[in-house]
Amino acid sequence: MTPLERAEARFGWKLVAPTIGIIGLLIIYPIAFNVYLSFFDVKLNGDKLFVGFENYAKLLTNPNYYASVSTTVIYLFGTVVGTTLLGLGVALLMKEPFSGRAFVSAAILMPYFAPVISVVFGWQFLFDPVNGVFNWLMVDVLHLWDARENLIGEPSTAVWVVIVFDVWKHFPIAYLLILSKLTSIPRDQYEAAAIDGYGPMGRFFHVTLPELFFVLATVVILRLIWNLNRFEDVFLLAPNVQTLPVFTYYQAFTGVIDQGLAAAISVIQFVVLCVLIWFYVKKILRW
Question: Where does the record place the ABC transmembrane type-1 domain (predicted)?
């Protein structure tokens, strides 16, 4: 390198040094400290006893951990599939201009931008076993059930309420991504497919879906990454639904506190997230 190039390189490092420092302080250090804690038995007074891989071994024999993993898989599958399909369906309906389209678009986006604490309280009232609208409809109006049910109070049913809530709240982001791609597909492709004899379904599978592949793959992988870390929506609506983030919280801060074990859970979750991010970067973005 010439002296000028070396000077420019040093100047470049000086420019990015504050950003690197902030990233190191707020992201890298907490991750490294969490990995460090996972090898210790952390006492409430702050003392630490090195136990090696014992925390990870305890997880392999903890049935509650496997139940949490199972709940997380159900939650991820339901929310990712539901969000993607609902976003795709609404985007297809909103593709063509119509009177009042701007108003409808604004209404579709409202769940995503609404404060989570307020909508959670609304949904808890909606499924309240005594005064909730849902039980009133099912029992008193439609007569589909014989008695009112506490859907949020039972973990086996609460997970499905949480899934429906997550799909309702977060499908607008999938809708926006898909709609932006739909509106950019050239009409010539649809006209050519129609000339070739394809009807609406044929044009959807042979023109629309291939054009949406990148966007749909992006939505799926990003929803997997985001929902694997999702805590506030699940915990506020139904704290008895123990996905991995909620289970980690209980291990770290409630009952028999075991922060070393909670750190080990977080490390495993972090490794899974790294694999998903690597897949997204290499296979979806093709970097």
Answer: 69-280
Nearest-angstrom CA–CA distance, 117 and 96: 34
Give the residue-averaged pLDDT of 178-196.
86
Please check whether residue 209 is in contact with residue 84, taking contact to mean a CB–CB distance below 8 angstroms. no
104: three-class secondary structure by DSSP: helix
Residue 70 C-beta-side C-alpha neighbours within 13 Å: 8
* 248 vs 266: CA distance, rounded Å: 7
Residues 152 and 124: beta-carbon distance below 8 Å: yes
Write the CA distances from 16 to 23, 26, 76, 143, 167, integer angstroms.
Answer: 11, 16, 37, 65, 39
| Cβ atoms within 10 Å, residue 19 | 9
> Can you state the angle between helices 259-279 and 209-228, rounded to 10 degrees?
170
Tokens of 275: 């694999």
DSSP code, position 287: -
DSSP summary character for residue 46: S
Calpha distance 56→43 (Å, rounded): 17
Measured distance CA(236)–CA(166) in Å, rounded: 12
Which residues partner with 49 through β-bridges?
41
Is pLDDT of 287 > 70? no
Give the sign of the dihedral formed by CA 195, CA 196, CA 200, CA 205: negative
Average pLDDT for 267-286: 84
pLDDT digits (tens, 9 = 90+) for 197-253: 888 888 888 888 888 988 998 899 889 989 998 999 999 999 999 999 999 999 888
Report field, pTM of the whole predicted structure over 0.85:
yes
Q: Which of 191, 190, 196, 225 is nearest to 210 (CA)?
A: 190
